[in-house]
Design a protein that fits this description.
With about 130 residues, the protein is α+β, with helices and mostly antiparallel strands. The protein contains four helices and four strands; from the N terminus they run ααβααβββ. Strand 3 (about 105-115) and strand 4 form a beta hairpin.
Length: about 130
């Protein structure tokens, strides 16, 4: 699968999808290009200062967080959880390596980087965690 095809599919899977948090921010497919896909580069493309916290986690950890948060949304939460599961399963199936970066402390940029032979698939959202 080419990076263009991956990006197109990610746009379809994230249409109308938002991360449950205090902001309920939508998932987006950024237009920036990555060359290393590491934490320093993520901080740079987000134009964050070098002292801003960047932590790496796994897709499984993010899915567990989504599942916990979806409980507060009733039946809508079940649908939201399933949409995230479909998205994350797709990423794991199409990408050689998937990493999640959390940039910041209270207002957190959540960036998912999926590595392929053709480049990187990228998803971004924000989560406010007070």
């Amino acid at each position: 699968m080419t990076n263009r095809q991956l990006t197109a599919q990610l746009k379809q899977l994230t249409a109308g999808l938002w991360l449950p948090s205090e902001t309920e921010a939508p998932w987006t497919v950024p237009t920036w290009t990555l060359t290393t896909g590491d934490a320093a580069e993520i901080r740079q493309v987000l134009r964050r200062a070098e002292d801003v916290s960047v932590t790496a986690s796994s897709l499984a950890e993010l899915m567990a967080q989504v599942q916990r948060r979806c409980r507060a949304y009733g039946s809508e939460g079940q649908t939201l959880h399933q949409q995230h599961q479909t998205l994350f399963d797709y990423l794991q199936g199409e990408c050689d390596r998937v990493r999640v970066f959390r940039v910041g402390t209270v207002t957190i940029d959540v960036v998912i980087v999926g590595e392929t032979a053709d480049g990187y698939g990228i998803l971004q959202t924000q989560s406010v965690e007070t």
